[in-house]
Design a protein that fits this description.
Subcellular location: Membrane
CATH architecture: Up-down Bundle
Number of domains: 1
Radius of gyration: 25 Å
Number of helices: 28
Family: Belongs to the sodium:solute symporter (SSF) (TC 2.A.21) family.
Protein name: Urea active transporter
Membrane topology: Multi-pass membrane protein
Keywords: Membrane, Transmembrane, Transmembrane helix
Structural class: mainly alpha
């Protein structure tokens, strides 16, 4: 069956891809100019371009985490898995994604405690294990970035094609265009600021959809939607669900999906250098609360969309307003029930809203990926192996080239996947086989003194080989042949993902125990700031995080415990107790319970919208007022004025005051005293 005519013209599609993308680039250029003049933040320096001088506050960290994880894939996949599995799909999809963000908060604060001057994850690996391990991690992280970006572009291009008729190849190549410009112009700070705008627009549209579903005349309320879903379940019962119902968390297929999705997305998080870049950029006081609040806020996006739009599509597809009857398997696998349902609810306006959502999601997350890969190219490859004594401006030039080069490569790679015939669902099931091998070795690099260099080098390589072998072996055993269709089955991919995750942990522990070593954490102090071309004030801002006073170290240890407890609570409460209790009860939702479930989804979405709208403005009010006064001509930063400090923690404010010394403007420079203080008090 052929797809219906696109509700929007190709002109609208190209206008969004090119016009809006370039508008964001122009906005980033203006923001960068304003920050340079009035906040003394110059992204022509490596520390600012890659780590934002490590001064990003809690508010922007929250929106950056939500934006980084609110992929176009998440929007489309949560709807698809709601359609596949019923209410269990969005619940487990949302729970599986916030767990890694919560647990990553532990790594973020531990990294700031042990390696405060780090620029990239790979730099940490190189300092601890040497160049061979460094090259292994370059491969692991770049593979992760390629899979991540390709996953986004494949799904987003299919949705844009369905909405506007723009050819998938053109959409794939044009989507990163505006992102390249504003990433090159603004660096990671521009990424944080545009993340704010992207996340606000995305959540605003989700809230509008959530209300419009029940006010558009499509259904009169949650009760009528419930009746339609019950009837749809009778006509097409879901295999493995209690009574074949879409309205139960007891879903065998969803439970399988939950495990592979948890592990695969854990790999996407831990092995995504973009997440580490944002952790390095966050202020010491912002890292843990920023990531934890980001995890809490993010949950509403896939849960709300997947439940109201995804599960709702099961019923909506039978209504006369629905544009496609029936949907093809390719359309379902690519999550196109989201744009189709939006069209049924709001006509062309709904289609335009989904187009905007997809564009906002894919450009925001792509920007973080481009920064991550450009940092690898410039810092971990160029400065480390090609020109060790490269100046700051040379590193930035290579970073810019890395942004452009990776955008072109990712677009071409995604087009290849499209012509091979790989769908969004195929990539969702498979990606953990590639992303998982480095998880445990990476975590142990930060958390365990006993992991040896040999173990770190060998275990992820053997783990990836084991994962691929199990994945292909399971496909052959289950289906008798290996092709695009059979290799993307949920079960064979789940076996491969589990093998990729578990086996490196076994390998690294065994190899490490054969010839034990104990690493000296103080060697991480070999990681130094890139200080050439920086002013004294800029050096002072960056070195604040290295001069860890006893009070600051005590605070960081406390926050590390908070992060561990909160991350563990998220895993136990949200991923285990809540869904598995409902799974074990075999409960099928009543109309009253379903109505309450829908109401909670909507309330949660509005809570997140308020969080990402108001909190960053309040948290950054000091710098915002400085900029506003500057724009009004009341104050302009002078040469000797230190950049604005964003932290609010009293321990850190005390530290900053101490560093300012006698008020003459002098600042301590990095040296032996700071290193010795750090060594004496660090965990």
């Amino acid at each position: 069956m052929s797809s219906p005519p696109a509700p929007l013209s190709q002109g609208v599609g190209y206008g969004m891809l090119v016009g809006v993308g370039l508008a964001f680039a122009f906005g980033a250029a203006m923001i960068t100019r304003v920050l340079k003049i009035y906040a003394k933040e110059d992204n022509r320096h490596s520390e600012m371009f890659m780590t934002a001088n490590r001064t990003v506050g809690t508010g922007l960290t929250v929106t950056a985490v939500i934006s980084s994880w609110a992929w176009s894939t998440a929007l489309l996949s949560s709807a698809a898995f709601g359609y596949f599995f019923g209410v269990a799909g969005p619940l487990w999809y949302a729970a599986g994604n916030i767990v890694q963000i919560g647990l990553f908060a532990v790594l973020a604060i531990q990294t700031k405690l042990k390696i405060p001057a780090a620029h990239t994850l790979l730099e940490i690996v190189r300092v601890r294990y040497g160049p061979v391990a460094h090259c292994v991690w370059i491969f692991l992280c770049l593979s992760n970035n390629i899979v991540a970006v390709s996953n986004m572009l494949v799904g987003a291009a299919a949705a844009i094609n369905a909405l506007t008729g723009v050819h998938i190849v053109a959409a794939t190549l044009l989507l990163p265009l505006g992102v390249v410009f504003y990433t090159v112009l603004g660096g990671i700070k521009a990424t944080f600021i545009t993340d704010y705008l992207h996340t606000f627009i995305l959540l605003l549209l989700i809230c509008i959809f959530s209300i419009k579903v029940f006010t558009s005349g499509l259904v009169s309320g949650p009760g009528e939607l419930y009746d339609l879903i019950v009837e749809a379940g009778k006509q097409n019962p879901v295999s493995g669900n209690q009574d074949g119902s879409y309205l139960t968390v007891h879903s065998n297929l969803a439970a399988r999906f939950a495990l592979s999705q948890l592990l695969g997305n854990l790999g996407l998080c831990i092995m995504d250098t973009g997440f580490w870049q944002k952790a390095f950029a966050a202020d010491v006081s912002a890292a843990v609360p920023g990531y934890l609040l980001g995890a809490v806020g993010y949950f509403s996006i896939p849960w709300t969309l997947g439940t109201i739009i995804g599960v709702g599509s099961v019923a909506f597809q039978y209504l006369p307003q629905y544009p496609v009857k029936p949907m093809t398997l390719d359309e379902i696998n690519n999550g196109l029930m989201l744009p189709y349902t939006a069209q049924a609810i709001m006509g062309k306006g709904g289609s335009g809203a989904v187009l905007t959502m997809i564009f906002m999601a894919v450009t925001s997350t792509t920007s973080a990926q481009l920064i991550a890969v450009s940092s690898i190219a410039s810092f971990d490859i160029f400065k480390t192996y090609i020109k060790p004594h490269a100046k700051d401006h040379e590193i930035i030039r290579v970073a810019h080239m890395g942004v452009v080069g990776f955008a072109l490569f990712a677009g071409g790679f995604s087009i290849m996947l499209y012509y091979i015939g790989l769908s969004l669902a195929w990539l969702d099931y498979f990606l953990g086989v590639v992303t998982c091998p480095g998880i445990i070795p990476t975590v142990l690099t930060i958390m365990w003194k006993g992991q040896t260099k040999t173990a770190a080098i060998v275990s992820p390589i053997l783990g990836m080989m084991t994962g691929f072998a199990v994945w292909l072996g399971a496909t052959k055993a289950l289906f008798g042949e290996i092709n695009v269709t059979t290799s993307g089955s949920q079960l064979s991919c789940m076996y491969g993902v589990i093998a990729s995750f578990v086996s490196p942990g076994i390998y690294t522990v065994i190899i490490s125990l054969i010839k034990p070593e104990s690493y000296d954490w103080d060697k991480f102090m070999e990681v130094e700031l890139i200080t050439d071309d920086l002013t004294a004030d800029e050096i002072a801002v960056n070195t604040r995080s290295q001069h860890l006073s006893p009070a600051m170290i005590k605070h960081m240890k406390k926050m590390s415990k908070v992060a561990a407890i909160a991350g563990g609570a998220m895993f136990i409460g949200v991923w285990i107790l809540w869904p598995y209790a409902m799974y074990g009860s075999r409960y099928v939702f009543s109309k009253k319970f379903f109505t309450g479930w829908i109401v909670m989804c909507i309330i949660y979405a509005f809570f997140t919208l308020i969080l990402v709208t108001i909190f960053p403005i309040w948290d950054g009010r000091k710098q915002l007022m400085t900029i506003i006064r500057g724009l009004l001509g009341k104050k302009k930063a002078t040469k000797g004025e230190a950049p604005t400090y964003h932290g609010e923690d009293p321990v850190l404010e005390t530290q900053v005051t101490a560093e300012k010394g006698d008020g003459t403007g002098s600042h301590p420079q990095p040296g032996l005293e700071g290193h010795e203080l750090h060594a004496r008090h660090r965990a």
